[in-house]
Design a protein that fits this description.
Elements: E1 3-6, H1 16-27, E2 35-38, H2 57-68, E3 72-75, H3 86-92, E4 95-96, E5 100-105, E6 108-113, H4 123-132, H5 135-142, H6 146-165, H7 176-186, E7 190-193, E8 200-203, E9 209-212, E10 219-226, E11 229-236
Parallel strand pairs: 1-2, 2-3, 3-4, 6-7, 7-9
Antiparallel strand pairs: 1-10, 5-6, 8-9, 10-11
Length: 238
C-alpha cells in the first residue's frame, strides 16, 4: 500500500499557482497511490457545496478522475472548509471523515486530525471553533444567499488575520498535553495532523511520534506512508 497525506493548500482564486500545483500532483505523484488523505484546509474558504468557483472546478474534476481510477480519497474538515458536505463528496468521489479518526499503517494504528482542536492554549479560537462547527450556526449560514455567505467568509478571513497577528506563535501551536491525551485516548503511537504550518517529525515520549504536514505556499508538502514507514517530503511548486 502506498498512502499519501496532504493538508493546508488553502486554494483560492488569488493563487492559481497552487491550483496548478495540486492538479500536477494529482496527475503525477498521486496517480498510482492506493489512498490519498486530505487533512483539511484544501480551500481557503468554502461557503457551501452549492457554490463552486469556476477556477476551482478543475480540482473537483481531478479528484473525481483520481477516484474513478481506483484511488481511495478521504477528506477531513479543516478550519477553513468545514462546510464541505455530501454533494462535494459525490462530485469528487471522496469519503468524508470525522474530526478524529484512527487508521492502520505499517507503523501501527495512526490518529489523523486536522490539528486545530489540539491548539487548546488559544481559548478564543476554541470558542469560535465550537460556534462554527455547531449545526445551528452552519444551517443558518447556508440559508443565506451566496453573496451574503461570500461576505461572511471575507469577514471571517479578516478576523482570522487580525487574531493571528496578535497572538504568539506558541499559543497558536498544539498543546503537548492535548496531543498526549488525544493519542492516549486513541491508543495510537503515531499522530498525523496539519493546521499549524510547521512541518516536522516530532519524537515523543514512549516511542510515540507526531508528524505535522506542511502548508503549500512557496513549496509543497506531502507525507508518504508505505511498508518502509513514513516520509515527509518537500517539493518545489514550480
Amino acid at each position: 500500500m502506498r498512502i499519501l497525506f496532504i493538508s493546508d493548500l488553502h486554494l483560492h482564486s488569488g493563487r492559481s499557482d497552487l491550483t496548478r500545483a495540486l492538479l500536477h500532483f494529482l496527475a503525477t505523484t498521486a496517480k498510482d497511490c492506493d489512498q490519498l488523505y486530505i487533512l483539511g484546509d484544501l480551500f481557503e474558504a468554502w461557503i457551501g457545496d452549492d457554490f463552486i468557483p469556476d477556477d476551482l472546478q478543475p480540482v473537483i474534476d481531478a479528484l473525481k478522475t483520481l477516484s474513478n481510477n481506483g484511488c481511495q480519497i478521504f477528506f477531513q474538515h479543516g478550519n477553513r472548509d468545514f462546510l464541505i458536505g455530501e454533494r462535494f463528496a459525490q462530485l469528487t468521489g471522496v469519503q468524508l471523515l470525522q474530526d478524529s479518526v484512527v487508521i492502520s499503517l505499517a507503523s501501527g494504528p495512526t490518529l489523523l486530525m486536522h490539528g486545530d482542536q489540539l491548539c487548546t492554549d488559544d481559548v478564543e479560537y476554541q470558542a469560535l471553533r465550537q460556534q462554527l462547527r455547531s449545526p445551528e450556526w452552519q444551517n443558518a449560514l447556508l440559508a443565506q444567499s451566496i453573496p451574503e455567505r461570500l461576505e461572511m467568509a471575507k469577514q471571517l478571513r479578516m478576523a482570522s488575520k487580525t487574531h493571528t497577528a496578535n497572538k504568539s506563535a506558541e499559543i497558536m501551536d498544539v498543546n503537548p498535553h492535548a496531543v498526549e491525551q488525544a493519542m492516549s485516548e486513541a491508543n495510537c503511537q503515531l499522530l498525523i495532523h496539519g493546521h499549524t504550518h510547521r512541518p516536522a517529525v516530532h519524537q515523543l515520549n514512549d516511542g510515540k511520534q507526531r508528524i505535522v504536514l506542511g502548508d503549500w505556499d512557496k513549496s509543497g508538502w506531502y507525507l508518504e506512508a508505505s511498508e518502509q514507514g513514513e516520509q515527509l517530503i518537500k517539493f518545489d511548486l514550480q
